[in-house]
## 1
Amino acid sequence: MSADGCGAPAGGAPVSAATDAGTQAVVQGRVTQNGAAVPVGYARLLNAGGEFVAEVPLGADGGFRFFAAPGSWTLRVLAPGNVRAERTVSADTGKITELEVAV
Amino acid sequence: MSRSDVLVDADWVEAHASDPGVVLVEVDEDTSAYDKGHIRNAVKIDWKADLQDPVRRDFVDKAGFEALLSERGISNDDTVVLYGGNNNWFAAYAYWYFRLYGHRGVKLLDGGRKKWELESRELVTDVPQRAKTSYQAREQDSSIRAFRDEVISAIGEDNLVDVRSPDEFSGRLLAPAHLPQEQAQRGGHIPTAKNIPWSKAAEEDGTFRSDDALRTLYGDAGVDYSRDTIAYCRIGERSAHTWFVLHELLGQPNVKNYDGSWTEYGSLVGVPIEVGDGK
């Protein structure tokens, strides 16, 4: 992932230290179906007004990660077979908020 | 120019991917997506390694573009069908780039890689072998590329369309929310710009909305169709998506993409910046 690009790598860009969000408000997690990872699909982050903010393709482990701002967000998952799921989530600076989304 | 001249759907690609004179090209920033699986017969273009100058912040020059297309086996007469991830951002950027260097037969796969994947269509790992060509590019078409001085002159005069998310526009975020937020430039937007996020032009599956919906979207957000327009984002690929909508789908003349975008403008000394939500 190049620092000067704008693209969303599968699973989301890495956090520099996995246990430390630093100054970021990280929302991350994993999408599963019957306990198994969903490796093909998309996670979309919507703001409190329901407007689209960002999207990443799911990683091979069903993972996704966003660098949000503090506040309330909606996470929407799209996967093949018309699979749709939605969760609301609250993000805080310096914190990694974890979500497990079973579809 | 109409929608059918510049867009194809997945069924068309499945029917024509092997036709002589048709070249499918996947364009991504993260090219590992192509390596894991791509549409049969598609070659890849790396947004950064293939299209950007390795030293200066600029595009590869005409000779570099000619060498790239020749090496990929693309001829001047081929119809190039571009698709990619990120709702076709980088494919739209490459589309603009192909137009910039004068390629005539170029189209986007509506919905890009996302719709294709969500419909569980075939992806393969075989890399097609194409014979080399002798591609001849034209000089850059400056009528579709904006530079910073034109952007500053356009403040309060022409349509400036900031296609980033509302949080980036207001200055609350400096990059899309799927990326870390440490950036060198200041936050905010170019004064008088209208914030019309690229995503409003796309359906959830990545396809473009209807012409009527698009015309209403930009008109209602304050774009004056009788004036010239410059679109920008952070580095110029999301705004290539909006350039495609305004120039190719809606047929607006005099629409330019400012590829310097916020990473250039937000780092300039002395230029005006507005922060907060749109006016």
Note: Strands of chain B lie at 7-8, 22-28, 43-46, 79-83, 106-109, 159-162, 194-195, 229-232, 255-257.
## 2
Amino acid sequence: MNVPQAKKYTLDNGIEVYAINAGFQELVKVELLFNNVDFDPAKPLLNSATNRMMSEGTKNFSAQQIADMIDYYGSFYETDENSDFCSIILYSLNKYLKDTLPFVSAVLDEPVFPEKELAIFKQNNKQRLNVDNEKVGSIARKKFGEIIFGSEHPYGYFIKPENYDSLTSEDLKAFHAKKYSSSNCMIIVSGLVTDETIKVLNRFLGQRKASGEKIKTVNPKFVTSKQKQHYIEKEGAIQSAIRIGMPFFNRKHPDYAGTAVMNTLFGGYFGSRLMSNIREDKGYTYGIGSVIVSMKQEGYYFISTEVGADVTNDAIREIYNEVDIMRNELVEEEELEMVKNYMLGTFLKGIDGAFQLAERFKSIYLSELDYSYYERYVDKLRTIGPDEILELSRKYLDPAHFLELVVGRK
Amino acid sequence: MNGSSESEQEVINCRVQIESKPKKLIHLIKYSSKTLSNGLKVLVHEDPSTPLATLNILYSVGARDESPDKTGFAHLFEHLMFGGSVNIPEYDSPLQLAGGDNNAFTNNDITNYYLTLPANNIETGFWLESDRMLSLAFSEKSLEVQRNVVVEEFKQRYLNQPYGDVWLLLRPLAYKVHPYQWATIGKEIEHITNATLEDVRDFFFRYYCPDNAIMTVAGGVKADEIFALAEKWFGEIQRATPSRMPYPAEPKQTEYRELTVERDIPYSSLYRAYHMCSRLDEQFYSIDLLSDIMSRGRSSRLYNTLVKEKKLFSEINAYSTADFDRGLMIIEGKLVKGVEMADAEKAIDAELNKICSELVTKEELEKVKNKVESTMEFSEMDLSGRALNLAIAEYMGDANLVNTELGLYRKVTAEEIKASAQEIFRKENCSTLYYLSNRKN
């Protein structure tokens, strides 16, 4: 399976651009990525808030004017924030790229972080967060991160509404100057990318050499909870959210591909052991799954579901039963064949089209791997057998290392 | 372009250069179609650039086809479709064996199934879909399990979420006669738990038949091969000619309605439902653009006035339900803490008055049309999106709408938008749900 590769260009100011040229729709996605500044638990929102607020007003344009022009040209401006990096994303028809990029350029170079907009940002995000924290699933997701990585770590910090109060315009400005330099920027452009596209990128994003260094994010050592079982009661909950898992390796680990197959069999697709038992046989839930999460510097593994509150303990018992079966019984060739074919089909979808290919590039680039990773991955999919699945289950699906969280009622 | 204030000059000037006539869409969705003798419509869109193929089957059955004492069936049915058909014990395994992946959705009008596979395995999809159109393996066990799954879905999405039961309240407020008065999940959990195998069989044989279905296939396939596969796998299935009574028409609403409820949620919210035309009506396009001007994105009116300037709402949205019978225009929003409902409503009404009395600007209209065009182009990136759009267009009566709809949007005038606004935004046409927080402080 041939994975079309990104082609590298360098802009006048040194910014690296990786281009995926595929498809015939005359449009592009331009994603600018910036490594996060080291996490400060006293000001935990700086990375994400700065990224999101940049478009709320620049030296020459108000938030509304920027939105107006981007929308007028049929473009879409989005941001993305995670614990490793933040992105500014522009989707544009090629014919209007030269009209919309100047606004992205202004947002990057001259954001103002107006007090008025910041006040609204704080208020509305606090409200959104308060609503989100009513949901057992959302509470479980955030709390579980804290259990695995601890509250001093960017992967584990559980954002509270009060965190928004400490944001100031001055802090955001200073933070922006530190983080959004050309040295800390990488661009991925995907779609119908021509030499003309690169020229336009160079014209609007490749001229300014903002001061600042490339940031190599340094995270503290993470601290996993010593407590094995956690329970947060939510009065009146009709369902409980369950998360069971542990710290894990990430994509860089040699066992990642094989373990991904093992995990898919266990809980990674609709026909998995977990789904077949807990949803399709017992009807305890609308959905259950398990996943390996690969971050830049760490990883973690979890099984998650929302079940009727009165069957919470039954569901947990069945989860452990399925773990037991994985650890003690060889999978039949036929079932393994099905999982492999499913994963190959999914892989095929994952390399179909420019935007998908951009995501595949992003994954390996950020994990500091190269395209041979995908060759090894597909090779492992094709060749892995029941013995290795059993071996990996025994090695890595180990209940002795599990931490458990229930949010709801049991 | 004339009459703009000086401060806007810089921004406006850029726009002068935009051509307001749409460029001819270079990439039309090409397709070919055929109807089998049993009534099954088959459409194929070839895309040789991809190794994948999507098979989409749309059944003309939705929540509106249920009887008022047995609701939630169309959706329960969607779940049962995966429990095994007469010759195939279980749906997902063979598909997964073929490297495929599938999903389905049900709404008030249709039930749609789609699967994506490597194109060279497309026959697996035909085998699976034809067998379950032929007959589901009706078993007590399958019904029992899916009943429980759907009950969990009801709880997870409608009862255990903040603001989850809004539509269970808003629908019966706006509709007193028409089946749109109940949500796809069903009026109440008991309808689902009481469903019998007999009920389920009746429903199946009435609606899941070839003359009630549209199949579209998109991807790295050849049309003549697909037509041959369709004939091979579906040709023998008997037509059933579903007898369908016309849906009871909702009488015109002549009086304002409201309902107030209290819930254990952090912030009060407001929902207004205004009756409007159907998706199939010519007027739909002006109403769709009207809602875009009002609240699509951060350049929209409601966002800038009510969220940013007046800070009355933390979020606000206006959209049409796009139902195939006469649908609803919804305005919904969450109030900022401490804001009085009366002030919030006054501000919304001011915006509605404005859009009813003044023409939208040329720039606003151009902007939302450009957005519609680019959205269509972006959505073509996705194969299953193309297959679905083709199916829906055919369902609407003309598959070529996938290529002509943009023109219908482009034709809309500011006068038409104003006329639509005046027709819809009348108090007598409105049902309001006040969904209030019962928390002190």
Note: The two ends of chain B are 49 Å apart (CA to CA).
